[in-house]
Design a protein that fits this description.
globular; about 220 residues; six-stranded parallel sheet
Length: about 220
């Protein structure tokens, strides 16, 4: 049985975040009107593709000065591949915004135009499902897990791992094309509603447990 994975679609829905709140978040981050905010959500470790993302963003920013990059998530100093203070300082100098750990991530998604996930490996990435639920197009690495969330060319773009150049090209494509962002974002939201509802996954999981245990299927609705 393929149980899948899901997120809280009542929490991660664009309509819950007002335009005033969206603009307040962008002002807090220092994002100006007309700038295109690319966002990443995850721990600050190499396996999440942080260094690849920073290298790609330098190219994106050179070609599209209106692009900004925000990284939402905590440092993880106990990990061997944690980013160093020097690396983070260099990224800040290139214009990257770091928020640290935040508990209002749905508001931050609403402030973004594009989401990026440059991981080297993933299970079933929650951040990608959350972004899809918020109606964001995604640039993600072409790996297991990301395949389940991103339909290449439909809800986002898939790129090779550890490859800043293709990552930059995909980001440039979305930064430059508002209509494409809108179309892919709509498709991403539609897919989230169909496949990433955590209540559906919970029901499916309980049904499978009952089948394995030999008990009767129950209606929990």
């Amino acid at each position: 049985h393929m149980l899948g994975n899901g997120v809280d679609l009542d929490r991660f829905t664009p309509d819950r975040v007002t335009e005033d709140r969206r603009q307040a978040i962008r002002h807090e981050l220092g994002v100006n009107p007309g700038e295109v905010l690319v966002g990443a959500v995850g721990r600050l470790v190499a396996e999440k593709g942080c260094r690849d993302r920073f290298a790609a963003f330098r190219t994106v920013r050179r070609l599209h000065p209106e692009a900004r990059l925000v990284v939402v998530g905590p440092s993880d100093a106990e990990k061997a591949d944690a980013l160093s203070d020097t690396e983070m300082a260099a990224a800040r100098a290139d214009g990257v915004i770091f928020t640290g750990l935040r508990h209002d991530v749905e508001d931050l998604y609403r402030a973004m135009e594009v989401c990026v996930l440059a991981s080297w490996r993933e299970g079933f990435p929650r951040s990608a499902m959350e972004a899809a639920a918020m109606g964001l197009p995604m640039v993600a690495t072409d790996i297991r897990g990301c395949w389940q969330v991103v339909d290449d060319g439909v809800t986002g773009l898939l790129v090779p791992t550890r490859s800043p150049e293709p990552l930059a090209a995909a980001l440039c494509r979305l930064v430059a094309d508002c209509d494409l962002r809108g179309t892919m974002g709509e498709q991403a939201r539609k897919k989230a509603l169909q496949q990433f509802d955590q209540s559906r996954v919970i029901d499916l999981t309980l049904d499978v447990y009952q089948q394995v245990a030999g008990g009767p299927k129950t209606d929990r609705r």
